[in-house]
């Protein structure tokens, strides 16, 4: 009986996918984040929305507040760091706070996806709107894995845990430079042209609408209006 027991196959812990040896993790091209326990990740994201913001997002918070326990809880803090919701010391970031707010949750989830799955969004900037099959195709293209590999499903499940909140996000992104918003060379100047004829005088006016980016950096707005003043008004 002892001999038979010793031959019993060891079951891998929850954070491992089938085919991985205990204590090892396969090197996957593309560096896409994943956890096989993506269902627990989804549970944690839903629970943290309702929970009080912690000073430290650690195992005690997962266990006692979010009720996420065991081996499936271990990958969650590193994943949230990768997605930009936690800082290096496990303290919640501004993106974490935005994710908790109902008015900014979708946009925060989309920002988190773009942080963690940048290679997918490099290939399709609207990846959060793609079908499951198309997202899996992108994962296969990036990783080189076979479509039946369980890691493909784990990567998709991790992506989808955040994408559940991101599908309704507005298609607006804050750019790093004001020049990406206002290009004076491409914008026609505002002109007022008066034509003198025997008929009553009339004016032709061109109106330009400037869409300002969503940002808290006042330097961005300064650069935009300075460009308008120097190139269009003066």
The profile of the biggest β sheet is: 2 strands, antiparallel
Strand content: under 5%
Low-confidence segments, given as residue ranges, are: 1-16, 173-197
How many helices does DSSP assign?
Answer: 10
How are the strands of the biggest sheet laid out side by side?
A: 1-2
Q: State the total count of DSSP E strands.
A: 2
Q: What order do the helices and strands follow?
A: HHHHHHHHHEEH
Proportion of helical residues? 40-55%
Class inferred from helices and paired strands: mainly alpha
Terminal-residue CA separation: 93 Å
Rg (CA only): 25 Å
The overall number of domains is 2
Average pLDDT, to the nearest integer? 79
* Structural shape: globular
What is the oligomer described by this structure? single chain
Notes on the protein architecture:
- The chain has 234 residues and is mainly alpha-helical.
- The protein folds into two domains: 137 residues, no CATH class; 56 residues, no CATH class.
- Helix content is 44%, strand content 3%.
- It has ten helices and two strands.
- A two-stranded antiparallel sheet has the order 1-2.
- The longest helix is centred in the last third of the chain and has 17 residues.
- The protein is globular, with a radius of gyration of 25 Å.
- The termini are far apart.
